[in-house]
């Protein structure tokens, strides 16, 4: 077999080599293209290719089924048998897997399973790059400097199992982050976008937005720590609610370890989390935010199980009309908790707000803070989901419907669950890039939120 075997052939051959009771093979064919720039000048660009193969072997025993997982990059045909044997050895050396379930069956094969992987290239920037060059010229003429990067990844995942599944998913992921700075570096503003193909990203519009924010920052106002009415833009809302989703494993809640645990036992499913009629949901078929419609699990944990690979993923409402409706379950944890199976999906959407834009929400603000984004978010208390983090790249004071200047940055201490209960207004839902989690989670659509008493716990000296 050629060392440049097609991905589906690699999957089929690994399954043929398996001597285990069950086997799952995942081939991830990855390609990426990127641009970077600094000081209004393009600095680097590049294209990469890669392959990662994951073999999951399951071995039945008197006490239960064990699993072994081994992953390798740059795998060729000659690497297959040692990789399969290593997974089998790992399974035999392991104890019974707590999450063991029969491997998934009965899912129709993907019609393009034997097709070549999709690939990205520098051509994805064919329209974006010239527009970026024009934005550099405008920024230079306006006395500001642009820094940032654009990255596009395309991963074709081929999943095959000893139970007959043959599934394939192509996932494009594009991110753009743009910083504008004053020449003395004392003022900074940020904007980011998530995209599938860079055809819907306008560098000129982003530069114009950042120019306005740098203008606001020409007046500096010092404010102390405290609770302020605060407008959280969609990117900040996304960062907070993604962490909330990551913290919503059903088993942890049932065992009394999370904010979704009911005092005295059980979960808070059915409880009202927000007085606003907000629905937090995931849907692999959401237009513009499409993600894998089946489970792709390279490892097991409370939120996913290697035994669930290939399990269909459908739309799910985590919060419906303000009330908690679902928690993340694998087949195993659904059995433990008595809750419906609800695997996580690769996107997150918050619906049910109003139709007002962030600008319109600013215009109706008597006095409050307007944030740009959040940064360095960390968990303080899982029982309440208290998080801490920093503001960054622009916090602005709004008075009588107008931005009157930039204030200092803050450290905040807030729980997204508490924020939902105190929010008094949600704006129009729009696609956004979660800045803090953009290395792991890019597909989100959120409204801006108005929180009357956001806790800015201390002053931060960051820009």
From TrEMBL:
GO function term, MF aspect, one: metallopeptidase activity
Spans annotated as Disordered: 94-116, 172-193
Pfam families in UniProt: PmbA_TldD_3rd
One of the GO biological process terms: proteolysis
Domain Metalloprotease TldD/E C-terminal, first and last residues per copy: 226-457
Protein name, UniProt field: Peptidase
Organism this protein belongs to: Streptomyces termitum
């Amino acid at each position: 077999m050629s060392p440049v075997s097609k991905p589906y052939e690699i999957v089929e051959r690994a399954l043929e080599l398996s001597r285990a009771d069950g086997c799952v093979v995942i081939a991830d064919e990855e390609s990426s293209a990127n641009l970077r720039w600094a000081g209004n000048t393009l600095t680097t660009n590049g294209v990469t290719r890669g392959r990662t193969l994951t073999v999951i072997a399951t071995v039945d025993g008197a006490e239960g089924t064990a699993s072994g997982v081994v992953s390798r990059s740059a795998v060729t045909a000659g690497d297959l048998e040692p990789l399969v044997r290593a997974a089998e050895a790992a399974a035999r050396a392991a104890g019974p897997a707590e999450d063991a379930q029969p491997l998934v069956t009965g899912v129709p094969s993907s019609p393009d399973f034997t097709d070549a992987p999709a690939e990205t290239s520098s051509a994805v920037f064919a329209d974006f790059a010239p527009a970026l060059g024009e934005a550099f010229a405008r920024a230079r003429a306006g006395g500001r400097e642009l820094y940032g990067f654009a990255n596009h990844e395309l991963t074709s995942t081929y999943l095959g199992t000893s139970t007959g599944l043959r599934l394939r998913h192509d996932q494009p992921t594009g991110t753009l982050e743009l910083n504008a700075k004053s020449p003395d570096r004392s003022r900074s503003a940020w904007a980011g976008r998530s995209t599938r193909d860079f055809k819907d990203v306008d560098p000129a519009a982003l530069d114009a937005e950042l120019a306005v924010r740098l203008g606001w920052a020409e007046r500096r106002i010092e404010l102390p720590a405290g609770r302020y009415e605060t407008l959280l833009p969609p990117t900040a809302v996304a960062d907070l609610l993604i962490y909330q989703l990551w913290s919503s494993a059903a088993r942890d809640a049932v065992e009394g370890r999370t904010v979704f645990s009911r005092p005295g036992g059980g979960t808070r499913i059915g409880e009202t989390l927000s007085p606003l009629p907000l629905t937090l949901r995931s849907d692999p078929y959401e237009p513009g935010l499409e993600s894998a419609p089946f489970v792709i699990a390279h490892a097991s944990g409370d939120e996913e199980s290697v035994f669930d690979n290939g399990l269909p993923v459908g739309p799910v409402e985590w919060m419906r009309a303000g009330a908690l409706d679902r928690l993340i379950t694998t087949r195993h944890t659904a059995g433990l908790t008595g809750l419906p199976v609800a695997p996580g999906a690769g996107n997150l959407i918050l619906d049910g707000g109003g139709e007002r834009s962030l600008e319109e929400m600013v215009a109706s603000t008597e006095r409050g803070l307007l944030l740009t984004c959040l940064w360095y978010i960390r968990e303080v208390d899982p029982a309440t989901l208290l998080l801490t983090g920093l503001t960054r790249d622009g916090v602005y004071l709004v008075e009588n419907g107008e931005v009157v200047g930039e204030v200092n940055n803050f450290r905040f201490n807030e729980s997204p669950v508490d924020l939902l209960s105190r929010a008094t207004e949600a704006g129009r839902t729009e696609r956004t890039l979660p800045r803090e989690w953009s290395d792991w989670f890019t597909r989100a659509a959120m409204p801006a939120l108005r929180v009357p008493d956001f806790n800015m716990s201390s002053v931060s000296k960051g820009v």
